[in-house]
Design goal:
The protein is mainly α. It has 6 helices and 5 strands; from the N terminus they run H-H-E-E-H-E-H-H-E-E-H. Helices cover 46% and strands 7% of the residues. The termini are far apart.
């Protein structure tokens, strides 16, 4: 009986020691080592790929933002502020206390098939809005000019990028709203167009937040 109790005690003590040792290694030392290496090797990415402007963090280059006018009484959704480049459609982008144009309310795709009636209606409405918003005097936008990413959200609903085609589509409207030469805004888009990763992975893209930060600087310099 005493031997059995002693053996049980030894087994329990061995198990407790293993638990304590593994807790320290995997719960303290390993996370600290990984965090330390990440901070030394990739400080920007380790801290959320934050983007700063005028001395404060205004967002992450990995998560999209909306650029809307203040919500008016009776409105269910805010209207886009057309002086800014607009991102892909998404219900996952909104506001929070740090930056009133930056939040995650929800994310995800619609999970609707290509022939779903609701999806078709949404895409048609989005295309009509893009055509209307981006048509300026002497330069009407045709429905065939509207790229797919202008009327559909990404799989996550949080894509921070738009295609160069969608950015170019917005150039004349942005230039007109901000009283800037079209050539200057067009160059801004070209300067912020990122090429394919390693030259062949993915598609060319434009980070909307970075583009709008540069646009704000350009407007300020012109005033």
């Amino acid at each position: 009986m005493n031997n059995s109790a002693a053996n049980t005690g030894r087994v329990l003590w061995a198990g407790l020691r293993a638990l304590l040792v593994l807790t320290v290694i995997t719960g303290v030392l390993y996370p600290l080592a990984v965090t330390g290496i990440a901070q030394l090797a990739f400080p920007g990415r380790a801290n959320g790929s934050a983007i700063e402007s005028e001395g404060r963090v205004v967002g992450s280059e990995l998560i999209g933002q909306t650029y809307d006018l203040p919500l008016k009484d009776g409105e269910e959704t805010a209207a886009p502020d057309l002086k800014w480049f607009q991102p892909r459609p998404s219900n996952g982008l909104g506001s929070n206390s740090v930056n009133t144009q930056y939040s995650i309310i929800l994310s995800g795709a619609t999970n609707r098939s290509g022939d779903n009636a609701d999806l078709v209606t949404w895409v048609k409405a989005a295309k009509a809005a893009v055509v209307k918003d981006n048509s300026v005097n002497g330069y009407p936008v045709k429905p065939s000019d509207v790229p797919a990413d202008a009327v559909t959200s990404s799989g996550s609903g949080l894509d921070p990028h738009i295609s160069p085609e969608y950015a170019e589509l917005q150039v004349r409207r942005v230039a007109e709203r901000n009283h800037l030469p079209v050539a200057q805004v067009d160059k801004l888009v070209a300067d912020h167009t990122e090429d394919r990763l390693l030259g062949f992975v993915g598609e060319p893209r434009v980070n909307v937040l970075k583009l709008n930060i540069a646009l704000r600087a350009l407007v300020a310099a012109a005033d």
